[in-house]
Amino acid sequence: MGDPDVREAWAARLAAWLPAAPADVLDLGCGTGSLSLLAALSGHRVTAVDRSLPMVELARAKLAGTGARTVAGDASRPPVAARRFDAVLVRHVLWTLPDPAAALRRWCALLRPGGRLVLVEGFRDGIGIPAAELTELLAPLTERVHTERLSGDARLWGGPVSDERYATVAVPTPARRHTEVVDVHLFVRRGDEVLLARRANTGYGDGLFNSPSGHVEEGEDVREAMVREAAEEVGLALTPEDLRIALVMQHRAPSGATRVGWFFEVEHGAGGEPVNTEPHKCSELAWFPLDALPDDMVAYCRAGAKAYAAGERFVLHLHEPGDPVAYVPDGPARAVALAVAGER
Ligand SMILES: C[S@@+](CC[C@H](N)C(=O)[O-])C[C@H]1O[C@@H](n2cnc3c(N)ncnc32)[C@H](O)[C@@H]1O
């Protein structure tokens, strides 16, 4: 980039693509350090990486006195340990990497929240990476992608060009933290039997037996939620101390949504005699031996009851798309009991 006009053209573009100075900029596959130098001269704190030692030496000489750091290493796995950056700048390198998608994922992970990738690439005669392909590669990481066509700006290239040249600025969407509903289930034990309630008019599992259960509400712990649900659904006046933990199960509905169910056990008689206090949502209460559970049951609850009867403590019950909510006697087994520390 010896030509001052070319340098000026790139400096102007870079100023638009990079965040306001001073920012931490990582230039991967920096070559002789031309872009690093422009970024450093604009006030950015630059780290320049190249896998070629001669290139690193050239970049080091070019960047001397700017405060920029030069490091030898692979752009695919930048040798920056736990450092984070406001921008990862990569020009004419991505297309040469063996797994560009993996490199993009790693680069995103190096960015601070709100940080950006600045990627300058091109495509000609089957060599390089077309802008549309890069946008597709970025799609799983973000929709915030802006591509500028550069072929028409002859100043950047020292003369007119006709092949595809562009810059893509992408701001990765922060990974959404996974959240799950927590629900609570009650196994009221009468000897070998357990109490089940047949659901009605609820829009979920209607006509099927289920244990008295419900969602944990804002501000409740799981025991408080169980005490409340037991009172609401079967009229039991339990205290948290009446409850014993039966098992914890992560369940995935056929829709793909997951939830965590805490299943509690309580002796028949604790908190009074169970009665159907919600006849508009429950058509009957009935007792069933744990080893002879009804088939017309919510599969999730049945898997919990079976696991409980088997003495399991932690279970995954992960439906696949297309599975019914109802238990299917000959259906695929979806429950997986997890090994418990200390038990061999
Ligand atoms: C075409 S030059 C571009 C240099 C610089 N980005 C620029 O635009 O002025 C490609 C540079 O990427 C470096 N390079 C290629 N693959 C690399 C990799 N996997 N890790 C680090 N550097 C790489 C090469 O050594 C070379 O210096």
Automatic annotation (TrEMBL):
Q: Which is one GO molecular function term here?
A: S-adenosylmethionine-dependent methyltransferase activity
Q: Which GO terms describe its biological process?
A: methylation
Domain Nudix hydrolase: residue ranges: 177-314
Name the CDD domains on file: AdoMet_MTases (cd02440), NUDIX_Hydrolase (cd04683)
The entry's keywords:
Hydrolase, Methyltransferase, S-adenosyl-L-methionine, Transferase
What is the organism lineage in this UniProt record? Bacteria, Bacillati, Actinomycetota, Actinomycetes, Kitasatosporales
Keyword flag Transferase: yes
* Coiled-coil stretches noted in the UniProt entry, renumbered to this chain: none
The entry's protein name is NUDIX hydrolase
Task: List the PANTHER family hit by this protein, alphabetically.
Answer: METHYLTRANSFERASE (PTHR43464), UBIQUINONE BIOSYNTHESIS O-METHYLTRANSFERASE, MITOCHONDRIAL (PTHR43464:SF19)
Q: Which Pfam families match?
A: Methyltransf_11, NUDIX
